[in-house]
Amino acid sequence: AQTVTQSQPEMSVQEAETVTLSCTYDTSESNYYLFWYKQPPSRQMILVIRQEAYKQQNATENRFSVNFQKAAKSFSLKISDSQLGDTAMYFCAFMKHVSTSGTYKYIFGTGTRLKVLA
Amino acid sequence: DAGITQSPRHKVTETGTPVTLRCHQTENHRYMYWYRQDPGHGLRLIHYSYGVKDTDKGEVSDGYSVSRSKTEDFLLTLESATSSQTSVYFCAISESNFPQYFGPGTRLLVL
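Above: the input entities. Below: the structure tokens describing the complete assembly.
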């Protein structure tokens, strides 16, 4: 069974600094997708970044980038130039296609609460 | 933002009463999901749908049922609410291998 582990329940970072959130996962699949979602105090779940497992190049979205290590099954999120608005809960998620049912299965980690300090 | 709404947004109910939560989408996405979010557990899948009248169980489906009679609507029913079902419920939609997009959530309190 697939699992997603976020080992850092809480983190803090000074404004304008860089922070890295860790995520590891366990799967025997070779083709899958990984995501980071942000949940600010409003509780809305917002997609931050997406990575396809077959792509070696790490995904980047403005100040957000990932370090995808497929062999190590690691998918960390780096936030550069942290802003107060980055304060949120961050969830790592794994997705794969289930060929027998034709559906897509998503598994979420338990989240990392990030606080950006002024 | 993806067109996903949930109703009600907040609900307080008593143990033993039935409760129905509604998820409505305007994106015509095939897949719809219901999750619950509890501290320390992240998001856990309750049920999902892969088409009209096509649904299946997730990891925490006991005590919940779903229905999808139209592409745009996915209903979650708690047949007889219990205090352990106090949670925040999220609906999500997706299409093929695209990411899931989430509704705003429903906060349910069962007294």
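Note for the figure: The two ends of chain B are 34 Å apart (CA to CA).
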